[in-house]
Specification:
With 333 residues, the protein is an alpha+beta fold. The chain has two domains: 127 residues, Phosphorylase Kinase, domain 1; 196 residues, Aminoglycoside 3'-phosphotransferase, Chain: A, domain 2 (Alpha-Beta Complex). It is 43% helix and 19% strand. It is built from eleven helices and ten strands. The strands form three sheets. The chain has a five-stranded antiparallel beta sheet with strand order 1-2-3-6-5, with helices on both faces. A three-stranded mixed beta sheet has the order 4-9-8. α6 packs across α10, α7 packs across α10 and α8 packs across α10. The protein is globular, with a radius of gyration of 21 Å. The relative contact order is 0.11.
Length: 333
Amino acid sequence: MQVFPYDRKLGNLLPVLGGALEDELEPRLLTDLEPGRWRIEQRTIQPTRYRTELGAALRYTLRVRDRLTAQSETRRCYLKVYRNERGAETFQLLQALTDKAEAGGAPYGVVRPIAYVRELRTLALEEARGPALQQILLHGGDWSAALRAVARAVAAFNQDDLPLTERHSLADQLADVNRAASLVRWACPELRAQVEALTAAIEAGLTDVPPALIHRDLKTDHIFLSGDQVIFIDLDSVVLGDPVRDPAHLVAHITARVGLDALPADEARRAADVFVDEYFAHVPPAWRPQFQLHRVGALIEVAGGIFKRQEPRWPEKVAAAIAEAHRAAPGAL
């Protein structure tokens, strides 16, 4: 038995929560303030996500006050605590993408890295600017322009050229889908026949394609919009793979309404259609044929995730995600 933050595989978590990064991090957070004038009044470190023995995400907040004017300011960043050296690889990737964006070479942005502290296997990141796509969809109003901007940014990301070697193959993807399908069949026996038919269609229909850059974890709370810029966060899973896995993954999260309970189902489908039409207007036509099967697979994975997280009303949500998968694959079954 383990109790947060005492984690036998994350021995670096407790020192980070105890303030071990203060000397390394705080001068970087306060670089735009005149030295000597500002006093730190409050320092808070709050967990935002924790996966036992795997990693943690923390919100690091400083409240400072000007000694002369009594003006107060807040500075915030996020810390990702890793079990292994994946954070070092993510830091290098984010730095390369940030440099490229600043040079005007990319139509999208990424959350800016602040530092990677190897001794504590911890990556510090700036707070993403603007609202998340999730907030925009929930806020109501016309979100079409935002979705089209996101679609163009995802298309550009999938066609970008970075010196990566790690690949997520079709076999890897099918293994992911089958694991999720097995979980859904166990959790919801009444869906067994539907899930088996969908999985069989995916295995029979998908073929290998030339690999391209993929995020592998695109969802509405991993995409932010600041003015005209689209910003991606959580790039720990970036690899080479079938590029339409990214739009399929995002569309699955939208149509299954993950984190979007207040968005009506018909509006979620309309949002997905807006995104899909814009995305495929900016990528090679050869990418389109396998998209629906990737969408089906992504919805099965989403259904498995809903159960694993034990979301409120999970049986209803899992069934709805599988129904969306059937809706996405009428010609494949």
